[in-house]
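S.,

As promised, the nicotinamide-adenine-dinucleotide run. Input:
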Amino acid sequence: MKEYPYYIAGEFKKSNNVIAIENPVTAEPIAQIYETTSEDLKSAVDAAREASLLWREISKLDRANTLREIQRAILEHLSILAELETREIGKPHKESLFVDIPLAADCFGYYASFLETFTEELHHTSDGTDYIDYVPFGTCGVYLPYNVPLMIFGFSCAAALAGGNSLIVKPSEYGSLSLLELAKVIDRLDIPKGLINIVSGPGVTVGAHLARSPVDLISFTGSRGTLKKIVSESSVYPKKILCELGGANCTVIYNDADCEEAVQNVLGSAFMKQGQICIGTSIVLIEEKVYDRCVARLLEGVKTITLGDPFSATCTMGALPTKGHRDEVHARVQELVNKGNRLLTGGEIPSLKGYFYPPTIIEIDEILYEEFFAPVLLVKKVKNNEEIKKILRNNPTGLVAQLWSKDIVNLEKIAKTVSCGTIWLNTFARMNSATPFGGTKQSGWGRNLGKSGFFEYVQCRHLGIGFDKSPVSGWFGIP
Ligand code: NAD
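Predicted complex:
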């Protein structure tokens, strides 16, 4: 079986704790990884500290060159990286190949260009000059979720490296093969040993050790429950925490919307990657007049979704990553149905060997702010704008929202009242490396991507240079 050692200070290492990695589509083991020991994790932090001191001194242009090399390395190995993500995570191969891995590469290209054009601030006055530049935090512990490991590596690590930081990357134990494979390529780059370390193993052990370690910043992408643990664990050595969580994302279809287009995007956002995208739709709110038509079209659309081998050209939905996640999703669906909500489609575990779950739609009367992180969509009929505004306002999460209507003036008004990191008006997934991404409220704080993403990973420094007497000279009258 193929082995994937972890990568610390430029060395590939194994431990006695071997973890079998399963293909969720066949429920058979495909590879093994190793749980990083606490001694090796400490070495990673020490090596990252050393490397950060070298890396911060490297010019912006040289840093940009390294980022471009990482971008090239990802693209040159696109095929193997995409294959690994699909084998381990169960998502359709075309999503890994055409979206997830290219986006990861693009982030490194974006921050390379950013560094090439970025200038510090200078303010001159008659008695001096103020110079404002940006210094790295130092060492960053970066946590990745299982669904899009390389993409989130790009979202967070490209900016962190651009800012002059070193990395200890902790992929999920359910999605680490692509990162561990990439480590082999990173190892061939001319960069300080220990600049990029990749540890592996369970969150409760390796993740917790990393949180307790004296890194300077944590960049966390994952679930709210884990964030709470990390906040508590990391208080041993207080540090900045940047966090990107999920959301009970709402999509609204108004009476005057282009319903066909809206439905297409609800289907895409609810069921791509088996519903495991943080920007996906959890709840679709549909105005009364178009409700029946939209629901009928949603159900027709679901019929075209084909579950199966994610490498097959006809497959549009693969499997969930673990049996545990699949069974938990099913239990939650049953609970909702037992409470009187109406199952419109799906909701049955298919008789396939892997951890498949069918696209499922449940009609609800009372609003529920739930993220399933699975192919489960809640639909709710809404009366009017007031009800819609209230539902959007009361959402405890704030990652993304989609609003569909031909009345763009009304949409803009509504958008201004919604607290969300991203609001899409008559579109979905309009984002790229230059557009900041992150949540409000319980979806997190801080931003990845864009200029804002860079500034999360640096602190500004003011150099005040005097050419004359300082403002305090002579204050006490000393001649
Ligand atoms: P998760 O919270 O289970 O795991 C995230 C990371 O934390 C993993 O690397 C895991 O090993 C680690 N971890 C787990 N327990 C830990 C502990 N006790 N201490 C330290 N580390 C620990 O998340 P997941 O299931 O892998 O990912 C799904 C979640 O991520 C969803 O909620 C989804 O919405 C969210 N997500 C958000 C974004 C975004 O950009 N906002 C993107 C993708 C996924």
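The chain has two domains: 2-245+443-464, 250-425. The first helix runs from residue 38 to 55.

- D.
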